[in-house]
Amino acid sequence: MFQRTAICTIFLILGATIAHSQSVLSLEEALEVANENSPEVRKSRLNRQRSKSFLDAQRASLKTNFNLSLDPFNYSREERFYEVLSQWQTTETYSTMANFSISQPIALTDGVVSLNNRLAWQQSTTESGPQVNEDIAFSNNLFLQYTQPLFTYNQTKQNLEELELDYERSDIQYRLQKLSTEVQVTRNYYNLYARQMALEISREELENQKDNYQVVQNKVDAQLLALEELYQAEVNLASARSQVYTREVQLQNAKDQFKQLIGMGLDRNFRVGLDIQIDSVEVNMDKAIQNALASRLEIRNREIELQNARFNLIETSAQNKFKGNVSVSLGVQGVDKNFSQMYDVPTTSPTISLHFDVPIWDWGARKARIKAAKLNIESSQIDLNEESKTINLDIRQTIRNLRNYKNQIEIARKNQENARLTYEINLERYNNGDLTGMDLQLYQNQLSQKKMDLTTALIDYKMELLNLKMQTLYDFMENEPLLPKDVVNSILE
């Protein structure tokens, strides 16, 4: 018994020393660390940056594009037999070419206008029997071209809109992940607080058991109590020490899990600092529901899914459908052996081409795809309607829970006060020898349990208030919305 007492005492002294040297980690500091280092938040942030990069690339592609293609050297040798002349003909060709183009996509019409300049040089030598012909020429073709798709949807504009929606959705997911992380971090922070309070309650209980043990030992030495009371006091003291050690281990394990959650180094030592005050917050249910329906990012996310389903219907309808393409160009071309004389006798080179794709029979494949796309739109519309109903029901339930938790707090406070008074009365009876140590232990356990019940009730109220804050995106404590006005306006639009 002496060895166990000494070991437990050493653990308590070390634990008290460590606790004294620990820095206090506030909830706000934990949330800041989580927003910067949490793996889930970082992944969501990277996904948003990826979507933004794709959107920037698409917008950049709609600006004027400059392109230069080069064929610096080409060589070919070809031999043919001409039956009419009954002789072989050998042709060797050397050529080089450069093409410079300036193109401008037009998002309004899905067309492309381009200015092209193709400069080439070619040397050709032909041997046909004893005759050798050599030809050297420079050529330059400068032309303006416009290409326009016909009888189909504007693919350029729709691609841009899809990427804009994708970026908006990734931004919504990032904000939702931050809110989810805030709830998760807060819940685990309160859990740490509850375990820390449980440890403090166990330490208070241990101190009471030490005092009781000393009183019993003095009475046994004075032969005022039987020896079995001392044995019971020793059992109670050992149990209290064991409970302190167990809750210290539980607290340290919970801290390690919390560090992993927020992305904090496992070597850092801290203690939570929290003063739970229950403020009287009156929540108007109609205002909460109205603000949630106007601000909840999940609703906008469902609207984006619905819009993407409509885009998919447009793309599906364009498959295997009659469509065409028209291309018109007008330019000037010059050819001469001398580079400086290419345009002495220029020639115009107008071209126009018209192309149509006419599907004949696809065995109903296009019709079936369109039907599937329409059903997908209908399903997305149902999800949007049900999301609004779910938000409405959740807020109603949360407000009712808040009122219930507030009543439970008052009951828990009264129960704790009654348990404290009961323990003090029975402690006096115990000191007077009218109560056994085992009976006193029951009252001690009751007091400890009521203290934990009050802590749990306070945490439940705070968590439900946070839940309401996340559901409505409105801080009723500060009477202000959580999202910036520009974000709310974009959702309403």
Q: What keywords describe this structure?
A:
2 domains, 7-stranded antiparallel β-sheet, disordered N terminus, two-stranded parallel sheet, Outer membrane efflux proteins (OEP), alpha+beta, 493 residues
Calculate the terminal CA-CA distance, rounded to whole Å: 74 Å
Specify the CATH architecture of the largest domain. Up-down Bundle
Please indicate the count of domains: 2
Superfamily (CATH H level) name of the largest domain: Outer membrane efflux proteins (OEP)
The beta-strand count equals 11
How is the quaternary structure best described?
single chain
- Percent in strands: 15-25%
Shape descriptor reads elongated
> How many helix segments?
10
Average pLDDT figure = 84
Structural class, judged by helices and strands? alpha+beta
Run of helices and strands: HEHHEEEEHHEHHEEEHHEEH
- pLDDT under 50 segments (min length 5)? 1-20
Radius of gyration: 41 Å
Question: If you consult CATH, what is the topology of the largest domain?
Answer: Outer membrane efflux proteins (OEP)
Helix content: 55-70%
CATH class of the largest domain: Mainly Alpha
Instruction: Outline the biggest β-sheet.
Output: 7 strands, antiparallel
Describe what this molecule looks like in 3D.
By secondary structure, this protein is an alpha+beta fold. It folds into 2 domains: 2-54 and 159-310 and 373-492, Outer membrane efflux proteins (OEP); 69-106 and 111-150 and 324-358, no CATH class. It has 10 helices and 11 strands. A hairpin with a 4-residue loop joins strand 10 and strand 11. Helix 2 (27-37) packs across helix 4, helix 4 packs antiparallel against helix 5 (227-262) and helix 8 (365-431) packs antiparallel against helix 9 (437-472). The protein starts with a helix and ends with a helix. Mean pLDDT is 84; it is low at 1-20.
